[in-house]
Design brief:
alpha+beta, OB fold (Dihydrolipoamide Acetyltransferase, E2P)
Length: about 120
């Protein structure tokens, strides 16, 4: 009969601390990443906002590019903002942070075909 108080203390701790563990785990997880494809309509350097033309309803038409966090890739190789096509198809992976779509990666293919 001595194990009953020990069992009830363990059960009490489990019930009290389990929700705290779940909340801490969910906050530590990174937000889900989404894919967006489209044609570049414009890029605004002061606000670092990339706007796409003809995006499906329900998807964001503009994403924020953060210079230090967004990977830019041309043909799978690292690129710069200066190489970003003024018009042309791009593939954007983004996460929603504080209600705003923030690009994690922007990739595109170059126009020149290499043999």
């Amino acid at each position: 009969m001595n194990s009953s108080p020990r069992y009830s203390r363990c059960l009490f701790r489990l019930v009290v601390f389990s929700p705290l563990f779940v909340v801490a785990t969910l906050q530590a997880m990174s937000p889900r990443q989404h894919l967006l494809t489209g044609v570049v309509q414009s890029f605004d350097p002061p606000t670092q906002t990339l706007t796409l033309a003809s995006v499906r309803p329900g998807l964001p038409s503009a994403v924020l590019i953060q210079v230090k966090r967004t990977r830019l890739r041309e043909d799978g190789k690292p690129a710069t903002l200066q190489q970003l096509p003024a018009t042309g198809p791009v593939r954007i992976y983004y996460k929603t942070e504080l209600g705003q779509p923030v690009a994690t990666e922007v990739s595109w293919r170059s126009d020149t075909k290499k043999p």
